Amino acid sequence: MAVKTLYLGPRLKKLRRELGLTQANMASDLDISASYIALMERNQRPVTAEMLLKLATTYRIDVADLADGDADETAARLQSVLRDPLFADIAIEPLDIEDIATSYPGMAEAILRLHTAFGEEQLVLAERRDLSEEQGSGAVASDPVGEARAFLAARRNCFPELDDSAAALARKLDSFAAMQDHLFEQHQLELRLTDDGLLRGALRWHDYHRRRIHISERIDQAGRRFQAALQIAIIEQEQPIARIVSESRLGSDDGKRLVRRALQSYWAAALLMPYRAFAKAAADMRHDVEALCSRFAVSFEQAAHRLTTLQRPGEEGVPFFFLRVDRAGNVSKRLDGAGFPFARHGGGCPLWNVHTVFDQPNTVDAQLIELPDGERYVSIARTVRGGGGAFGVPRVVRSVAIACSASHMDKLAYGETLAAAEPTPIGVACRLCHRPRCIARSAPPMGREIVPVRYRESGVPFDFSME
């Protein structure tokens, strides 16, 4: 029977350095030559099964940790990156990717970081180009919101490190009471529900001097749990989040602050909806958002938002786009995990159900939409409420929509209803939409000549020539 061999050079070198050993020290411990250690670290000699056993017994380490490490996840991340059209003309075999991930983890990580930085820079440049066109040639204004959105989009709004740390605590912190106990035991902080008289309209307040965390009693149970989870994220995840932000290409302090807040919220959501449990439930329930709300005791917006984050390499879910708008069409949250080509700075087409659900509040609506290029998407929308909680307290009603390619319709609970439905033709924005005879049009498309109405009234706001 052949003896299995592995090339584990970088990991062997990392282990040696973590133990504070020179090559000569390790060679003496293992009763081999220092030159052989050097050859193994350069992947010029394999680490045999016998050598693995000797390493494990000498240094009291788990063989599986040394042999496997994070190679599978790194390989999955590399495969995801190398599917980018940028590399379409390069033939890279899966075995080559696995070999790089296993034998050269440092090089693999360098490739992953470069690709992330490339994607982020592309999105930032696109945002700046749009702003320049809107404000006049040469004008490039600071846009921290655009920066933050580009940062999240470049990473497909997925942060496995934060998912893993949240999942490690999720079983223990499965209720508001458990979070209260955790904050007191670990940080000597008292978590309590408080009336608005003390909070003065705030949802949460950390009273640093009295070592108390106050959460408004006016928010619902899902909101209370999220605020408690968010407070734990702020206290316990400062370093991991700071590290992620420091590796970004964010140019403004405001952009960094917005990203830091987004990552804190990401961790809080991951605590309430652990990645693997939520991804499995989403697939089993065919992405029925209301059913997911009931399973995880979260709000519609929280569950919809979480669906956009299921893009962990090797464990990807359906890619969703997320949008939240008010009645005036102002966008207050946008997350793109599906390549949805909607205008960055507008609320989109008024025929889209993210706008029409205001006519049927608190009711989920599913719509099959078709863009001018023929691409079809499924859009799931519902109104959500912010504020309120007592008589006379200001509140705002917004609409939330998630959308994915119609190619995923068989994975959706809404698919059977929509399979036989005629798609609603919508446009990215009126200036870019060339659909004729649209009664919802607010502006003529660019490059089209308005037709005179002296002898004929068409009944549409802007009748234009199709020539």
TrEMBL record:
SMART domains: HTH_XRE (SM00530). Signal peptide: none annotated. Residues 12-66 form the HTH cro/C1-type domain. The keyword DNA-binding applies. Pfam families: HTH_3, Peptidase_M78, ScfRs. The keyword Transcription regulation applies. GO terms for cellular component: cytosol. InterPro entries: Cro/C1-type_HTH, HTH_RamB, IrrE_HExxH, Lambda_DNA-bd_dom_sf, ScfR_C, TransReg_Diox_bact_type. GO terms for molecular function: DNA binding; DNA-binding transcription factor activity. CDD domains: HTH_XRE. Keywords: DNA-binding, Transcription, Transcription regulation. Belongs to the short-chain fatty acyl-CoA assimilation regulator (ScfR) family. This is XRE family transcriptional regulator. It comes from Aurantiacibacter zhengii.
